Amino acid sequence: MSSLQCFAKWALPGILVLPSSCEQRAGDDSFPDKPNIILIIADDMNWDDCGAYGHPTIRTPNIDRLADEGIKFTNAFLTTSSCSPSRASIITGMYPHQTDAEQLHWPVPADKITFVEKLRDAGYWTAQAGKWHLGDALMDRFDFLASETAFNDLVPDNEIPVLPPADASGCHLWAATLKYRPADKPFFLWLAAFDPHRPYEENIISQPHDPDNAVIPPYMPDTPAVRKDFALYYDEISRMDDYIGRVMEELQKQGVAENTLILFISDNGRPFPRDKTTMYEGGIKTPFIIRWPAVVQPGSVSPSLISAVDIAPTFLTLAGIKPGAGIAGEDFSPVLNSPDSEIRDYVFAQAHWHDAERMYRAVRDSRYKYIRNFYPDLPNTPPADALKSPTFETMLALKDNGELNEAQMNVFMTPSPGEELYDVANDPFELNNLAGDARYSEVLERMQMVLKDFMSSTNDRIPESRTPDEFHRRTGDRLPAYQWPRPGKFDRP
User: Fold this and answer.
1) CB of 69 closer than 8 Å to CB of 272
2) How far is CA 23 from CA 4, 6, 19, 294, in A?
3) Residue in 445, 164, 120, 410 with CA at minimum distance from that of residue 279
4) Cα separation, 461 vs 472, whole angstroms
5) Is the pTM of this model over 0.85?
6) What whole-number distance in Å separates Cα of residue 160 and Cα of residue 165?
């Protein structure tokens, strides 16, 4: 365990930035008092699409460095595989159906409490930079919302903020937000990328990835078009990785890296068929890496089950704040210096409307996953951006020629399975559905009961009516039901 080191004051021109408090909590010498906290959120990145989790070709030196210098969680999960509902769950510490923002693009209502304002009330400076996607009501929970014009209010008179050029990553103001933060306060930063969300462009990095080196999962066809699609996705991950490195460099320059906790995650899986919007590992499993030199042993690995709802209570606890009622997650801070600690037996996930209707629930333990599909009459259709992708266009052509295998036909199957059970430890791609196998009947019954009890205890109910599809399930074209902006849960007729 590394010891906390205090650093000298460091000043930018005209701005004094002081290191955070180096005091220890009374009665607890494991955690420094009020650490700085940075949450970095990728947009649509699969859990193992980086070197830290074993990908052989994606260039992610800075994500890999976070893992080398921190702790890597190998069983971390999101509560949903849809962008805005996932972020709503993270910021509130509640499951999507509890946030009243469970469908894509539904704004979080103003009456919801988030961990951000609790940190702010405890003396933290709170800032957000990059993608938002949570609606207008929560913006006032932050002291600072980064934009080119907003920085004018942070710098002294007669000075011009030095800001990097913008690009499509959504990350260009991350390090600048650190550079111009106020003095004498611990800080919390919500840094959110647009990468690697579609659409993709060529030559966005100086050394594009080679399609020949793409790793194609067995539930997608291995063709040149699919490989190129994956390579462009890899390029966006590498672009975001560079900005993560800039944040780490800025922390080091300011002398506050030691007592700054960085958590890197994704909001859901990659935007490809059978990944994003599904309950499979490619939809809800997330990279989950924490670097905190003052506490975390470098190179640690934890198999502990972690859920995205656990982020809020953990951040609050580390800041010396009691999470309070309404928080659904568990504090996982004991795992930071004891990686084999277990804080929960199960994680839960759900899927609601995302461009088109769907209604899934899932529960996973350390070995098995159970998925319940409440609308089995609907196919497992990918999101609209994936429907327009070269990968899905390839799958359509191969399907029409009868050239897709059973796993690759998953997204077209109608009716789709009402129940699925997977031994994920031995079947990581979830290709063999055990729900009808008598040898696993006891496992199935146990997981059914756990999910039923969870839905009952959290008042999770299936809606009486369905939300119309806004995109065609084969072409991805907009349908007459399309509305923008989408009415929220309490604005619908």
Assistant:
1) no
2) 9, 9, 12, 12
3) 410
4) 27
5) yes
6) 14
Determine which helix (DSSP H) or strand (DSSP E) holds 115, and give its type and residue range. helix 115-121
Count the Cβ atoms, other than its own, within 10 Å of residue 368: 20
Interatomic CA distance for residues 347 and 294, integer angstroms: 29
Pairing relationship of beta strands 10-12 and 15-17 according to DSSP bridges: antiparallel
Per the structure block, which two tokens stand in for 252?
A: 């080091």
- Give the number of other Cβ atoms within 10 Å of residue 479's Cβ: 14
CATH 3.40.720.10 in the chain, residue ranges: 34-349
What's the CA dihedral at 19, 132, 46, 271 to 10 degrees?
-160
From-to residues of CATH 3.30.1120 in the chain: 360-457
In DSSP notation, 282-324 reads HHHB---EEE-TTTSPTTEEE---EEGGGHHHHHHHHTT----
Q: What is the CATH number of domain 34-349?
A: 3.40.720.10
Give the tokens for residue 441: 């009947």
The dotted CATH code for 360-457 is 3.30.1120
Rounded-to-integer distance, Cα 131 and Cα 40, Å = 11
Separation of CA 257 from chain center: 23
Can you list the pairs that 311-317 forms with residues at least 24 positions away whose Cβ atoms lie under 8 Å? 311/39, 311/90, 311/93, 311/115, 311/263, 311/265, 312/90, 312/91, 312/92, 312/93, 312/114, 312/115, 313/93, 313/115, 315/37, 315/39, 315/115, 315/119, 315/188, 316/115, 316/118, 316/119
- Token readout for 118 is 């609790």
Paired with 422 in beta bridges are: 369
Tokens matching residue 446 = 């146990």
Tens-digit pLDDT profile for residues 167-209? 999 999 999 999 999 889 999 999 999 999 999 999 999 999 9
Beta-bridge partner residues of 73: 302
Give 385-424 pLDDT, tens digit per residue. Answer: 999 999 999 999 999 999 999 999 999 999 999 999 999 9
